[in-house]
Every structure is written in structure tokens, then in C-alpha cells.
Amino acid sequence: MIFNGLFLKNIYIHLKKPKRGMILSEVMVKLEELQSNFCYTIATPAKKENIMIIKKWVSDNVALDLWFPEYEEFLKQRDGIEFDGLVIFNSDPNDATKGFITANEIWRADSNYSHYVYFGDTDISWFAYDLNKKKYVELDKASSDFIESFDSFNQMLENVINNLL
User: Fold this and answer.
1) Sign of the alpha-carbon torsion through 136, 149, 130, 104
2) Tens of pLDDT along the chain (165 residues)?
3) What is the domain-level CATH number for residue 118?
4) Within-domain flag for 99
5) DSSP class of residue 77?
């Protein structure tokens, strides 16, 4: 069953909203509770082979020694998120809509966006790593304007999920 975001946010009123500063694992548990309550499928851990394919793709297409260990740890726990308009890309190299490689091939093909590595999106934002600033960032999807920066993937993910909840 699919609900629009406004309806879900109204339903959440009875649920305790996570506090800022909660550690990522607590935020992820809260997200899983909500997903279960609304019959969303919770992703299983990524296949080791798929993570290796992403690592090779990043090395071949972005930068030789670049990798994102926190994203890897996230993928080892759950292979992406899709909930209430939020997508954190999965590791499936054949997923044409929500896969890390496909999304980055599409968005990085435009030279205006090639200095980002993309990890996810919503209807209004992109979540990426800025190769020039060496920071994780939230960007406005319509204009690509900078919204906020983060020191780590986990900090970015925690912020994104807290805003969703």
C-alpha cells in the first residue's frame, strides 16, 4: 500500500519523534519500526559481490583511491532505503532506477554535476559527496544549490532520516 508523504507525516504524530543527536543505529531502528508499521519492505544486507562492483566502478570512473567506508558499512546492514519519498541507493548494478551505479552514471554525465558522487535523493534533494570540498552535501534538486554539508556519510544519513521522521 502506498501513502503520500503528507498522510504519513500526519500518522506519525502518535509516534515519538527521534531526538537530534541520536546515534545512527537508533535512528535506523526507528525507521525500521515505521517501515514495518506501514508494510514497507526492509532491505536485506547487500551482497559482497555488489559492494565490490561499486568499489571498482568508483575507482574506474571517479578516483582511483576514493572509497566511502561508512556507505559500505550501511550496505552491509541494509541494501538501500526506499521510504516516504527517500531513496538511498542500493548496490545492485542492474537496478536502473535505485542503484548507485546507474544513478551516478546518469547524473555525473553532465559536467555541471560530475564533481559529485550521489548516494540518494528525495523529490526535492540530492545527497552526495562533493569531490572538490571533500564533504557530504545536500543539494536542491531543481537548482543544484547547496543546502547543507556534513562531515560523514553517517551524519548525512542520520540527518536525512531524522528529517523524514
Assistant:
1) positive
2) 444 444 444 343 333 443 444 556 777 787 788 777 777 777 899 999 999 999 999 999 999 999 999 999 999 989 999 988 999 999 999 999 999 999 999 999 999 999 999 999 999 999 999 999 999 999 999 998 999 999 999 999 989 988 877
3) 3.40.1580.10
4) yes
5) H
